[in-house]
Request: fold
Amino acid sequence: MDSIDLPAGPVAAAPIPVIRSPRPPRIWKFWGTALWGLFVFAAMFIGQIAVVAWFVLRWEGPIDMAAAIHVLGSGLTISLSVIMGLPAVLAALWVAIRTSRTSFADYLALRWTSWTNFLIGAASLFVLVMTWDLLSRALGREVMPGFMIEVLKSARADGALWLLVVAFCVAAPVSEELFVRGFLYRGWSESFLRPVGAILLSSLVWTALHLQYDWFFFGEVFSIGLLLGYLRYRFNSTWLTIFVHGLNNLAAVAQTIWLAGSN
Reply:
């Protein structure tokens, strides 16, 4: 007997896979940038103070005020502490930016720019610094703070002059620019502050990092911060501000070496 084909029953529809769209990247706004900025600053401080603690522990003899001043004011100590602040800042920034789900280079505007823009930055810095030098001479002030001369003499005595150059002209510009003009400016410029407010506030923060200077040099540092902030806004490149910052520090170190040699 031939078999009878029975009509097939209803076939259950295959479930439609749920595709979860990745969460969009975000930029930390005012308070997020401020709080993460405190985290980055704390990392920088810990990285630098670790070097000071290491030198204090290695100190032979009693730790009194004179010994502490000697350790803290040593050119070798300052150079190594500035250098050790760089990896600490990089690590802290990586955590903050990874949490935002944005690429590290994009968040910090680590993009190249034209050689013309580098020339513009260098020329602008030259005009600004020369203006402050002329004002300093007109007021009968020292062109270079005594702090810099003493640190250089100490570094030279310790055979660490080359380390001081690396610290001031490479490590400091990279760590400070990634933190201030890279991270702080990026978040604050996209908040209610807008670019102008972000330039002003980030320049104030940067000036506050240079507590070793007096009011006159505070003004110079703040004005250089405004220039760096404008360059960051105008050309959208933190590599440019790192270059200009490093050029400023290199000129300052060279001038300090010349002044120290003439004294």
